[in-house]
Specification:
The chain has about 180 residues and is an all-alpha fold. The protein folds into 2 domains: about 5-55 and about 130-180, no CATH class; about 65-115, Endochitinase, domain 2 (2-Layer Sandwich). The protein is about 50% helix and about 0% strand. It has 9 helices and no strands. Helix 1 packs across helix 2 (about 20-30), helix 2 runs parallel beside helix 6 (about 120-130) and helix 5 crosses helix 6. The longest helix has 17 residues, at about 160-175. The chain starts with a helix and ends in an 8-residue tail after the last helix.
Length: about 180
């Protein structure tokens, strides 16, 4: 992926981040086995939305909504804010930080801020994508199913929530050369 392609897909990405994120996302696409344009477009649409066009690798909220959430592995006082969303897919919860830290050889549980470093964020997003079977849904062009894998069933939100992901998806298809498939 080139910086120019990335700027066309995610036009709100800061110019100073284009070179870095083009490199990080190229590696992430390979690691996530996004070897087709439809897979790559789905991956880029999801991380583009989750990270606010690569402008926010740390969730803006304080994380208190995650406090005591055993389903996320947050069993210790302070786990909610400590393990709030970070990265390109915005992983949340002690369980995810431990899981992806172990998979990637990073001490994410001890240093959750590492999940927001671009290279780590790309590797985590790729691992998460594979772990949650997102390529099968990308092959079917089922963005809603991918969104549920990333955000859970409570991901309905306002109509623009999915519309914006779909817009990013169509833009990625066009930029990556599949204009005829855009419907």
């Amino acid at each position: 992926m080139t910086p120019e392609q990335l700027a066309a897909i995610l036009p709100l990405c800061p110019d100073e981040g284009l070179d870095l994120f083009a490199r990080v996302l190229t590696a992430a696409l390979v690691a996530a086995e996004c070897h087709t344009v439809t897979r790559a477009a789905a991956f880029l649409a999801q991380i583009g939305w989750e990270s606010d066009y690569l402008r926010q690798l740390v969730e803006g909220d304080d994380g208190l909504a995650y406090e005591g959430r055993r389903d996320l592995g947050n069993t210790e006082p302070g786990d909610g804010p400590r393990y709030k969303g970070r990265g390109l897919i915005q992983i949340t919860g002690r369980r995810n930080y431990v899981r992806y830290g172990d998979q990637l050889g990073l001490d994410l549980a001890g240093h959750p801020e590492l999940a927001a470093e671009p290279e780590n964020a790309g590797a985590i997003a790729a691992a998460y994508w594979l772990d949650h079977g997102c390529n099968a849904f990308a092959d079917d062009r089922d963005l809603r199913a991918i969104t549920e894998r990333i955000n859970g069933r409570s991901s309905e939100g306002p109509p623009s929530y999915h519309g914006r992901r779909e817009e990013l998806y169509r833009r990625a298809l066009e930029v990556l050369g599949i204009t005829a498939l855009v419907a």
